[in-house]
Specification:
- With 356 residues, this protein is α/β, with parallel strands linked by helices.
- Strands 2-1-3-4-5-11 form a 6-stranded parallel sheet, covered by helices on one side.
- Helices cover 42% and strands 19% of the residues.
Length: 356
Amino acid sequence: MKTSNILLTHLSVAVMLLTMGYCLTSCNDDDDASNAQTPVIQSEVLVLFSIDGLGDGSYNDQILRGIKLMENEHTQGMTIKFITPTSHEEVESVCTSWWENIDKPNEKGKIPRRLLVLASSNYVDIARRVFANAEMNINRCVLAFEAEDSGDETEQIRTFGISMYGASWLAGQTARELGCKHPLVLLGNGQDNTIHDARDGFVEGFGQSEDGSFAVVSAIADDWTGYGMPTELYKKMYDYDGQYDFIYAVAGGSNMGAYRYLRENPECGIYTAGMDTDQSAYSTLIVGSMVKRIDLVLYDHLTNWYNQQDLPRYQDYGLESGYINWQIADRYTQLKAGVEANRQEAIKKEKEYGAK
């Protein structure tokens, strides 16, 4: 009887221990799974698009695509919000408020890592002014799009530039191969230094036509408003018709005015180029597009920052990087061979231009 009781007791203890062990293991597995799904460090990203830029079917929409790529890969531990400001005053206000609240806990009571993305070259001066005395690190960081290198090694904000020289040089070569003699380089903002490489690249790539003519350079405006004037450019096209045979417009949303005119007047004989994305669908006279993979630039920077890699103070990307290209439209496939034959020369000349 005593032996039976002892055996029963031992069996009960064993079952209890096994049950406890199973419970502990199950609970620990649940905790591990929960911890694996929720990163210890939360990350918040705020993106400021260019003024009234979202929905342009081009540059800004590509940026949005980069955001969505990032969101699809990081459903846990990262939140991305964006704002489309209506003025530079609003941009400065948002920057100031963001920094003032940099150490503010989130709704979970924790202070997250924070990144501010200024997705317009027009915001760089604002950023350098607002954050002049800010002490930043990998957990509190500002990334400004398409800036010129300040040369200041102590600068806190992170910037990058995309050189348009090489792609534009190839575009100039294409215009000459088409037999064009009187091209126009049309800038959205004549005072915007970040697009002068596009101007110089096309002018030097085109060189001199058979009749001794060079590319003419003009500007829609002398400030950022020139990037959002499609109606004004549409009206200007009546003056350009018969005067120029190729228009290389680096003018943001204003380009839509030129494309509209060419759709309505397909026999006018003016060739043109798409900007930022493949825009060959907008007109049969778009022979190629200067394609910027700004979505991939943003995605790569966000990925590095998310993985706690310090972003470089300044980085310059050109034709060789793969982030920018001169892409011939499918209907002009006969021009593709010339582009590929000149690609290495374009890369070489872009490096020489950047070294000046």
